[in-house]
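Record type: monomer structure entry
Structure origin: computed from sequence
Chain ID: A
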Amino acid sequence: MTPAEWLLLLGAGFLAGVINALASGGSFFTYPALILTGLTPVSAAATTLTALAPANIVAIPEYLPEIRSDWHRYPRELAIIIAGATLGIGALIRTDNGFFERFVPWLILAGTLFYAASPWIRRWSERQAPEAATGLVGTVAMFVFAVYLTYFGSGVGNVFIGMYTIRGFDTFLSANAAKNIAIAIGTVMAVVAYSATGFVSWSALVPLAIGSLSGGWLSAKGGRRVPVRAIRVATIAFGLFVAGWLFVR
């Protein structure tokens, strides 16, 4: 790996760590950076998931008050995450690189649109169909999102925030705390599986992980003062750009 590629991945990891600790969409930055360094699509996806795990983990201690107040909700929610994440890992391991490369632009586009629309979806669900989020439909939806988390994951964190808000985590901070724990568990599972199967590029992982860890820690420290709207707009714009680039690439 050249020094320029190392710095590219360090910067992409830092931006991803900042974005993921605040909301979601960090892999919009890391996946194309890994592709530019020559990784295969499946390896780039697995390495991204592995490298971004620290950002959500280091953010968790900053939300301990919210976690304690909602602790009784976690066993059921995390059981759903573990089940879905297991299926997502198995699906990615069995995916052909050619198919995945054709599928990824659609995944990024869908993730970006979910990310952009999630505040409106959340408000509609709260007013019109709260039982859809809290009952069987909501449980199935969370399972599907957990599968997507470990299969690719771009943009799913903000959907988690919206779903957790409806499912009883009443404030943005408490929903974001639940999102960080859920994604941390899913990505740690992915780290173990993708490392064991040889899908992770360790030379690319180092700068990504350093950047992600730094960005996640910095973002968690200042996250209560960051204008979330600005982060959302920038992430959506970049997600659309990446999807377009991959479609024409």
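Annotation 1: The mean pLDDT is 82.
Annotation 2: Residues 3-248 form one domain.
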